[in-house]
Amino acid sequence: MSAPIAYIDRTRAYYQALGYGAPYDWAHFRDVPFARLGKPLAEARIAVVTTAAPFKPGAGNQGPGAAYNAQAKFYEVYAVAAEPIPDLRISHVAIDRDHTSAEDPGTWLPLRALRSEHSNAAPLVYGLPTNRSHRQSQADAEVLCDLMTGGGVDAAILVPNCPVCHQSVCFAARALESAGIATVIMGCARDIVEHAGAPRFLFSDFPLGNAAGRPGDPDSQLKTMRLALRLLVEAEAPRTTWVSPLRWPGPPDWREDYSNPARLSPEEIAARRAAFDQGKAQAKALRGNASAVK
Q1: Contact residues for 160 (Cβ-Cβ < 8 A; gap 6+)
Q2: How far apart are CA 205 and CA 208, in angstroms?
Q3: Is 294 inside a domain boundary?
Q4: Domain count within the chain
Q5: Residue 156 lies in a domain
Q6: Residues 107-119: pLDDT tens digits?
Q7: pLDDT of 19-60, one tens digit each?
Q8: Residue 164: phi, psi to the nearest 5?
């Protein structure tokens, strides 16, 4: 079996190849809070936390196969009704677009799987922005914690999508566990989560954007949810990682493609730099507009 992608090293090499400066400082915590589930699992109100964004009409392509879309980003924690399943999408983050197309929301928003396996799902689903700033990530985590404690949530399943998303949910898990809300992170970037430090982590060795199971495969999504619920109960200490036994059905060398500068021509690197700069400019304008509305 191939080793998981080392996203910290891969993204460092990628952005240096694009011509950016000092490597990003990924969050790392020595101490990790840990809250045991305070009641039997069947009685616990469990919520899903996602880094997916509410669909924005007029903000460009956000559907299956969409290119990275900075216009679709969001910058504030949100809570929306979990029933009917809300229209939340992942075109705004760096999923693995070479090996998945985001055609099945069940791979990043496991509401159907949670309801199938648990009778006391929370009535709201919570959205967490993705932010490179550690300070802003901590602030977002505190807002999320206030919303969830006010909503009577006992436990949370956090589902990141991009590399930085995995760091963001670690901040959120720390805040929630400190408030007595037990958490499980479902993720695909093992090194980022374990570097930051998570209370409970269910790792699926799948392309980014599929942390909750394989696309078009409800059985794999149910199996992933069952593992997460078991981990919620059975973990004895923080930094507990379980590895899903499920395998990705695509080409065996898929791990070599994601943001790998060794597989890009100089022309492709230049095009990606230009696209990234454009996306940053769009995101900066959106963030400024959001602050002005306040």
Answers
A1: 51, 166, 168, 169, 185, 186, 187, 189, 211
A2: 9
A3: no
A4: 1
A5: yes
A6: 999 999 999 999 9
A7: 998 899 999 999 999 999 999 999 999 999 999 999 999 999
A8: -65, -30
